[in-house]
Amino acid sequence: MQLALRIVFGACLALGPLALAGCAAGPARPPSSLTSPPSLLEALRAGGHVIYMRHMNADVGRDVPGAGEWWKKCGEGHRMLSERGRAEATRIGEAIRRLGIPISEVRSSEYCRAVETARLLALGDPKTDARLNGWPVWKAVDPDRGLERLAEGTRALLAGRPVQGNVLLISHKQDFPHPAAPVLAELDDGESAIFTPDGRGGFALRGRIKPEEWAQMEGRK
Hints:
Layout: H1 40-46, E1 50-54, H2 83-98, E2 103-108, H3 112-121, E3 127-128, H4 135-141, H5 146-159, E4 166-171, E5 192-197, E6 203-209, H6 213-220
Parallel strand pairs: 1-4, 2-3, 2-4
Antiparallel strand pairs: 1-5, 5-6
Helix pairs in contact: 2-3, 4-5
């Protein structure tokens, strides 16, 4: 699918713990007031958005929850980035810098594959944030409300308006009932969803970018 066809709009309001935040589940027709929206690249260059990126390809090893904080023990009990994933992270980081997209803050989950993705992107000093951890951790920590708390925490991050530039979140696919936004249950490895906070506790889905599409954006600059 061409990048231009992947630019989607949806209105999201943080209505409650189990609300879907009103995000569009798929491509939607822009409202009449947005008949000539700026391109996704122009929007990102202007700043004010939250980029939710799923970690890069990770097919080395497998997730086997164990005792303690097993997800932080790189190479022990969970999947790690593949060589392809490492190369993709480096290429995407280089493309974002060449495109002139300002990144003011980088946060990642505590999983090693997310931390390594953030490090290889080289777009700023990444900080880990437990709110971005994968759902198995949250389910283990709080069997009753773990998934709800994960969705709540993610919505808070997506609704936070950047003071300057864009905020980059490196996290995981939320393939469970009632994710923070429907699109987060669909992301492939390395794919990004772009959100625009509305300044009132809500956010809108602006578009999606697959790993290879950053290079396509370079060709349009």
